[in-house]
Each structure stands twice: as C-alpha cells, then as structure tokens.
C-alpha cells in the first residue's frame, strides 16, 4: 500500500526532509509539504535592490562542518547539481565598532574566543592569571554552560563584551551569557571536556576542524539562496501546499490525521497569499498520513504535539526567540565606504545596528553601480526597539551607519526592510538534554526538524531535516 508523509514547514529543513524522504522510500510514496505562508524557503529569501541581488534572510552557508568534512549544505548543493553556481565572498577584512571607530577584527579566534589572548591587540585585554591549569578539564562530562560564563571565568569580561558577544550576536542575535556552549560552539564544548585551559581548548577545537588555510569558509549560490529552496522542492517531487496551515495533529488506527484550515485574520491585516495548492476560502479539512515531520518553530511544534505527546510538547515549548530586522540601502555610486566586508557592533555601543555587510565589496558586485549595504538591527530582549515603521528604521540605520564609519551618508536611492519577528532561536544551557528528552518522548512516525532544535545556519537545518526523514522512514519500513 502506498505510503504518505506530511512535512509541516517549507523552510530548508522541511524541504531537505522531503528530498531525503524521496531518496529513502519507494517511488510511489506521496510526500506533502504544508507551508502556512505563501512561499517556500523560510529564511532563504532572495530579494533585489536597485537591480542588485540582495538576500533578505540567510546570506551564505559554511562550506565545512566542525569535523572538517564538507557541510550538509554543500552536500545538498552537489546532490542538486548546483556546484557550478557556487560563489564565495571576497577575502576582505572585517572590523569591530568600538568607541565610535572601526578596529580590525582579530584573526584566529573561534567565534570570537581567542586561543592566544596576546594576539587581540587593542580590541580586548584578558584578565591576568585566570586561565590557569587547575589539573582537571574545564567542563565535566555532559556539562553544558553559557558561552559567556566559561569565557568570563577564564579570560575576563572584556573579551566577552567586546569580541564574543558581537560575534554571537551576529549569528544568533543573542547574548553570550545566555547561549548554550553545546549548541553555539559544539567543537569548543567537546575540547573543553578534555583540556585544562580555555586557550588549549580553543586551539584543540581549531585543529580538529580540519579546515585548510586559504580555502573558502563560506559559500552561496549565484542568483541567490532561494535557488537552493526551489531546487530542493523540485527534486523532492513533493506536493506543495501553500497558505493552508496545519491546525491539529491526531492519532488514527494506522497513522496520523492533520486538521487543516485557514488562520483567522485580524481586522486590518491581509491573509497570506495563496499558492497553487492553497486552501483558499475552503473551511477546515483533514489529511491522513503515515508519518509526520514537524519542521516549524518550537511553539507551533509544541502546540501540535500537546494532544499526542505531552512530554515532548513541554520540552520544546519553552524555547525563546529573538526578533531582528534587516535594512538594505542602495547608496549612490561612488559613496565612500571603508575597505571592509563589514563590521560587528558590541551591545555596549548602544546602537540599534548590530552588524553591517558591505554587499558591494564582500560579494564583488560590478563597479559603477549603486553601493549596497545590508544592516542587521535588534538583539534578544530588544524587540521594542524595532517597533517603528520602515521609514524610521531606514533613517535610523543610515544615520548610525554614518556615525560608525565616521562620515554622514547621502540618502539611499532605494531601500527595503525585512522583519524577522521571533526569527532566531535562543538556546539556553541544557538545550541538547531537553531536546533529547523531547525526541525520546515522540511517538513512532513523528520527528522534529529545523533551527528550533538543531541549530541555526543552513547546514544545521539541512542535516536536521535529513535526520528527521531517516527517523520516520525507519518506522514506515518496520
């Protein structure tokens, strides 16, 4: 009898799950991807500004994993035959904004944590004598701590506040003192359970990465990362349902029943645009399937799990999120910018802008066109600072950018704002243990996938979706 699988969530984790399901199961298996919005890809969303391709979400992916092998994102690119479209950023230095000026980003750190504190120059000074060998590993087996707690204890506050915090803020929009070491820096967590000093643990993690000097660290696709989502969806052969949310999940004698239906829309707001297989104005309906991959955020996952797996629902439902906004500016041709790929801003600087990418320089855009800058605004706990209309955020971003680089900037010829409300998970220490408990409590035929569970970044999401597909495929073939 033909099997049917539902993937709830059409971001890259859900799409990677659909493709892996296609590879693992008989050709007649029906795979349905339910995406509540009107478009696939989640935070893989390619936009345009003044005729230039500019990402509205994720900008690139890591080329290698923490073990030195190619990342899951690169493996997916190869699986889809897109190797010829791989592009890499130029080798242009980055900077930190400190005290109203830009200083070079120290080289050789591990997400901002140095293996040699003497190499930080004017950026930060480590507390003397703190990183002493006490005759035992930094962490006990299985112990997880906040990144900031470990680094403050060993190097002092300045290294965290001026270097680690802005680095983690650029990835997670979170604070080092609240982010799990196991999730944010897994390679350092592993070596910290062996090494007796933080400097030795950092060097061991860097050596274990297997990265070859000179090879590209990041990659993207010519034409934008939306291509990755589209190609994955096509290769999966899945039926795509857009604009029709899954409202409930219930057991049946042979599998699972999904209750589908439109979300009620508050007055003054528009419903999401519907795709070719959207629910339109139809009322609630159901779909019976043999297995389900939940590839949505933690709270929707917890809501769907509550009637069928209460312990799993409770374990995942408490995950917090940070909201951010991206502002893209097309400045007039010839607008002077520093010879940098961009810069990061520590929270202590007090700006709304936490990072800037000089797209024109970083991605080698043609000379003579507009000067494109993409700015990231907002950190965890600062949601109220984003509660302004687009025009206010654009002007604030332009003004702060000018102050940070030391000169007033002209008004942009074009601009846009992309808001990601509740877009970035905030992994508190102990996240992996909670996740393991949640997965152990899942009923057979249900799996979790995505950034909420297995880490931000395209490779982590791809690997998470593939693992979920493998898990439910085993139950269907049992």
TrEMBL record:
Q: Which gene encodes it?
A: hemG
Q: Which pathway does the record list?
A: Porphyrin-containing compound metabolism; protoheme biosynthesis
A matching Pfam family: Amino_oxidase
Using the UniProt annotation, give all residue ranges assigned to the region (Disordered).
267-286
Q: Where in the cell is it found?
A: Cytoplasm
- What keywords tag this UniProt record? Cytoplasm, FAD, Flavoprotein, Heme biosynthesis, Oxidoreductase
Amine oxidase domain boundaries: 12-472
Q: Name one GO molecular function term.
A: oxygen-dependent protoporphyrinogen oxidase activity
Q: What is its EC number?
A: 1.3.3.15
Which reaction is this enzyme known to catalyze? Answer: coproporphyrinogen III + 3 O2 = coproporphyrin III + 3 H2O2
Q: What does this protein do?
A: Involved in coproporphyrin-dependent heme b biosynthesis. Catalyzes the oxidation of coproporphyrinogen III to coproporphyrin III.
Any keyword Flavoprotein? yes
| Protein name, UniProt field | Coproporphyrinogen III oxidase
Q: Which family does it belong to?
A: Belongs to the protoporphyrinogen/coproporphyrinogen oxidase family. Coproporphyrinogen III oxidase subfamily.
Q: Which cofactor does it need?
A: FAD
User: Would the keyword Zinc turn up in this protein's UniProt record?
Assistant: no
